[in-house]
Amino acid sequence: MAILVSKKVTKRFGGLEAVGKVDLEVKEHAIYSIIGPNGAGKTTFFNCVTGFYTPEEGEILFNGRNITGLSPDRVTRLGIARTYQNIRLFKNMTAVENILVGMQPHLKSGVLGAIFRDPRTNREEKEAVEEAIRLLVYINMQGKGDLLAKNLPYGEQRRLEIGRALASKPSLLLLDEPTAGMNPRETQDMVNFIRRLRDELGITILLIEHQMRVVMSISELITVLDFGVKIAEGTPQEIQKNPRVVEAYLGRGAASGLGQAPTAV
Amino acid sequence: MKSKSSYWVKTLQNGLVGGGISLLLSVVGLVLAFGKSYVISGVITMGEIFVLAPFLFEAYLSVRQAPSKEPGRLLITGGLSGLVGGAVLAVFVLIGEVVNVRAVLINSSPDLFALLTFHLSLLPGILVLLAVSLVTGVIAAGAYLLPERFRGTLSQAFMVVVLIGLFRDLIVTVIIRWGVVQYAFLWLFAESGLKIIGALIIFVLVGVLAFWSKGRDRKAIALKQSPRQQRVARWGLLGVLGLLTLLLPVILGSYFSEILDNVGIYVLMGLGLNIVVGFAGLLDLGYVAFYAIGAYTLGVLTTSEAVGLLHLSFWEAIPFALIVAVFAGIILGLPVLRMRGDYLAIVTLGFGEIIRILVLSDWLKPLLGGSEGIQRIGQPTIGTFVLAHQQELYYLILVGIILAGFITIRLKDSHLGRSWMALREDEDVAEAMGINKVKTKLLAFAMGALFSGLGGAIFATKIGSVYPQSFSFIVSINILSLIIIGGMGSIPGVFVGGLALVGLPLLLSQFADFRYLVYGAVLVVMMLMKPEGLAPEARRRLELHEDEAGPGPQEEPQTVTKNPGR
After folding, report:
1. Model ipTM?
2. For an interface test with B, which of A74, A101, A154 has the most B Cβ atoms less than 10 Å from its Cβ?
3. Do residue A111 and residue B443 have CB atoms under 8 angstroms apart?
């Protein structure tokens, strides 16, 4: 069953069509990648899904429900979480606090609860902190909960951002270039970690990725965008053989000149 | 050799800066205003201290920057720096002799020149001025040469003597309330400032105390104590502070109570604005509006004049005042939710002005009294007892502050507090975390408006009347400044800021003319030297000073103290 369906989603900025009539269907428990050259509209598409942008045309269905135009907090509450291409943690908050903010959709206590500290609020707060620490362990950062996010090493900041996204207990996780700036070893760890998220937590993963090795090894299905338009869709093998994809990445000459499957795209 | 010569240039520069500051303080009239108020009777006036203090400071800076630490050279450096400063003033005096400076700088009166030349004739006066500057510089260098413990002791003792001498009048008004005990203290004081013997006694006493307390290793003592002892000590200290807070108006009398009341009202509002600006990061420059709304609502509802509505009692009216203020907070919040940073500041500023102009308008004059305001506002009563006097209102304000402080602390350490912080850090991401931006921001505005409205209501009942003039833009700026001085987002900071920015100017009535000069200078210096504020939050200190700690493996990780409640 499809968890996320995008129907002819179009987003324009002035005259520029950043995303044009993109159709997409992500199956539940899939790891699905969106690739494309810089400026292809991948992040813009993410922003449409998560409610930052309202697409001019088309609609986005999440679990069969139309979420087009909902505000970001509503979208998150429905079960979509995301990370950012350039890490956007709350830099001056600690790691635990970052995760606790991520838990926002599940905290029910209000102002009065916060002021009077009734037993229910206390219990909720205690459970939230325990859960946050469990998550911290899950992302392999135990004992670092009291460090300010900005003082963490790069790789941990990436993981913490995913941890924060997990805190909202999403059923769909959007990862925007999770391996950007990582060395091969860190990249491999991240790939394994993403697989674990899907296998252990049953979260569907929608991924933007630049490193072809990552994309080809991890994805079950790939959509290729170029200038905001979907130019190909298929399994990694199909994508590698697709001349339009090669053209988009390497230019027209490369595609016609080679005329064969470029393995090192 | 280049470094050496550039170092002498630096010393000259420092000296010139010191002279410049002295000159500035002189020509704006600050020196003259304090020219007659002795710190130590017959020895030194506050005016002279204002002239010499910059030399002291700059000479100390020069010595500290000196590459060679050889004592003789350091003394020369300090002396030179002081001398250059003195020379600046000397040149000024000479110019004053030839040209009529007063035509441009109205404060450069003959009195000022007399003060600068120590009431001597021109040439001996200038020589003495230069000599004194030189000596001041040498003293600064000498202080630098002393071991840290002695230097700290001396400077603290010196500061206390200056403060006691400066506040002589106020201290005496307090002391004479103490019955027989007064005679134990009164003889220390002269007609103006301290007697020489009094100054000496205080200097020695404070010096000994400071020296002793610096010798103790607090951590070692704390380690020796059992947790139980520590707890007892902590509660004991809190108890004494609490008792002192309760007794303050009785001990200090009505004049100080008036000051405390004013500080208290500002602290109350500061706590509210701290939520809006410090926690949620929404720069609100129209905060005075809620203060006005609280005050006017209470005024309209309780005044015994014909214009009033309902003629309620203070206690009946205060819930309405708060509700109206909160409602106004939400009304303001709704349209400005989408704005950020500068735009938000401008719109809120406009809102503050709208409220003030509305109050002044002919349209609302039948209700709010236009520029004549509302008089005869009801006073709070407990049974038949009327809280009318400053000393009694102090307790009302205290209760307000305790309530506001309690609510603030609780909210800060809740998921709401975290949501505010997240919004402050990155609004987009906060929203993507499921934080309802509208609700969370409105709540911050509402809490801010609540405390400000309460402050306004208490202000109205304290003065007994409200006028539009009381609610000008500068009030918003004052509250914002006190938060900045104290430390954004820090609750103790609000108190420190309130005492420093509202209390001090009221204490120093002579400063009244220079209030905004001092204000501006203090703000600039603070932002340069201590941007996190006087009593910063642990987190803020980390934010702003992490680069000074520097990265390194031996560095202990920067953590925010975890509260025990977690």
Report:
1. 0.88
2. A101
3. yes
